[in-house]
Amino acid sequence: MSHSPDAKHTMTLEQARSIFWLRNNHRPLGELLDEGYLSERRLQWAADKAYNPQLKAAASVLLKHLRAQAAPPAPPATASWADAAVTTVKTGITLQQARATLWPFNNFKNQPMGELVDTRQLRLKDLTYAVENAWDERVRQAAIALLAVRLDQAVEEPAPAAGPLKVISGGKSYSESKELRWTLVEGAFLGGGMVGSILLFIYFLSKMTTEPGGFGHLPETPVEAIAFTIAMILIVIMIWLPKRAFTAAQNKIDSEIETARKGQEGEEQVLEALRQNLDGNWTLFRNVVLPGKNKADIDSVLVGPPGVWALEIKNFSGTYRNFGEHWEYAAGKGRKLLKQSPSRQAQNNAVRLANFFRADGVRQWVDPVVVWANPGSALTIENPAVAVWTLQGLPEELGNIWQGQTVDEQARAKIVEKLTLLCERQREKALAKRNVRLQKAAS
Predict the structure, then answer these.
(1) How many CB atoms lie within 10 A of CB 428?
(2) Which among 375, 265, 383, 364 has a CA at the least distance from the CA of 309?
(3) How do strand 334-337 and strand 298-304 relate by DSSP bridges?
(4) Long-range pairs for 103-109 at CB < 8 Å and ≥24 separation?
(5) Where are the domains of the chain?
């Protein structure tokens, strides 16, 4: 399928206003702009990242118009298709499902019907032919829905019956386990330091009160005075050094705990955003540890009708830059490369996950994604090797992925079943280890 490279320059303002937004709010851009839903940030995102070339071009036109006007754009002279509708058409299928349905006939076979309608490659007579001749009920429903939209008729979409997003966890995340581990270390460190200090104090107190030269015996000669002074200096040094080392170690532990806590907060924020934007057709697997030598967990695996995504979630603070697969952060007056590239982590996890599926005969591409979960930190992205989703732009990214061919339902069911079983075994294994530790502690 080819699209004109200068589509955004030839598209008129009214044409741009008639293009539909993403699945999460599938309505004409003009309506959403007038209501205030489409901000300059959202339009800029669509102009840069939207998969649909028509939406990308329309966003560029509207963005240019917004910036050229001192005031918000005036409402269109003609009413929108929803306002002009005189009939409500019940199709039994959502507009998003209709757009994603593959055209079954020659010339454009196996291409999404929504894209073909947007680019006018499917005309009204083609959709009418599909309504009358398609064997697949879904194709007929999709053709009716898209015909209704083209004829300015309102489409009554069926209420979603899938329920909320399904979330399955493999146990504690790496960040959560790290926070717990360092908290235990800090408790043991503080407790040990306190007990050691008390014992040391009691020891010196007993030595000074019971032995000759203690409190009851002050230095009488110059030699004794010098020896006493040296002894006191040594005592002060012995107290000061452990205290300084103790403080440095405690600061290090506190820093590790704070880093782990932020990582866990980032994963929870992403989970909440996914719950708000996805329904029960999707399943999110958290903290997945694949079998094999590499025991590093995958933060999240998202499985849905359009595909599978391996999510590497980061909640870093500071100023960062991603170019290609490299990540660097501001350090003083310069920049330093991150030791572990989130892009490489996401890529490696996606490959491992695809190999895990392939072992059971499921050939499924896995898309790697870095999710930037800290909206308060500065992030610059330049030609990323792996897609980077921000927490703020997550609704748009999730709407953007509904493009192209969907995953076969049988293959998706097998993927969900395989990951569910893996997470159950992972939790059982963690519970067994915990019981063993408790038994050892009790015995």
Answers:
(1) 11
(2) 364
(3) unpaired
(4) 103/130, 103/139, 104/130, 104/134, 104/135, 104/136, 104/139, 105/129, 105/130, 108/1
(5) 7-156, 166-171+271-442, 175-260
By DSSP bridging, strand 326-331 and strand 166-169 are unpaired
pLDDT of residue 9: 52
For the chain, the C-alpha Rg in angstroms (whole number) is 32
**Which tokens hold the place of 39?**
């901000």
CA distance 198 to 91: 79
Q: For the chain, give the percent of residues with pLDDT over 90.
A: 20
Task: Provide the pairing of β-strand 326-331 with 334-337.
Answer: antiparallel
For the chain, the residue count is 443
Quick one: tokens of 205? 């107190």
Give the mean model confidence (pLDDT) for residues 320-324: 93
Read off the pTM: 0.60
Three-state DSSP state, 163: coil
Task: Kindly give, in sequence order, each residue whose CB lies less than 8 Å from that of residue 441, ignoring residues fewer than 6 positions away.
Answer: none
156 close to 412: Cβ distance less than 8 angstroms? no
Model pLDDT for residues 39-90, shown as the tens digit of each residue: 788 888 888 888 888 888 999 998 888 887 744 444 444 444 344 444 677 7
- Compute the distance between CA of residue 140 and CA of residue 128 in angstroms, rounded to an integer: 9
The per-residue pLDDT for 106 is 80
Structure tokens at 329: 């952060």
Beta bridge mates, 155: 89
* Closest to 101 measured CA to CA, from 125, 81, 130: 130
Question: Considering only CA atoms, which of 14, 103, 108, 8 is closest in space to residue 52?
Answer: 8
The SS3 assignment for 287 reads strand
The amino acid present at 38, given as its one-letter code, is: L
The encoded tokens of residue 345 equal 């982590």
Least confident of 21-30, 246-255, 336-345, 372-381: 246-255
List, for residues 389-405, the tens digit of each pLDDT value: 998 888 888 888 876 55
CA 324 to chain centre: 19
Q: What does the mean pLDDT of the chain come to?
A: 77
The DSSP result for 335-386, as a single string, is: EEE-SS-HHHHHHHHHHHHHHHHHTTT----EEEEEEE--TTSEEEEEEESS
Q: Which amino acid is at 119?
A: T
Q: Average of pLDDT values for 321-342?
A: 90
Residue 336, strand partner residues: 329
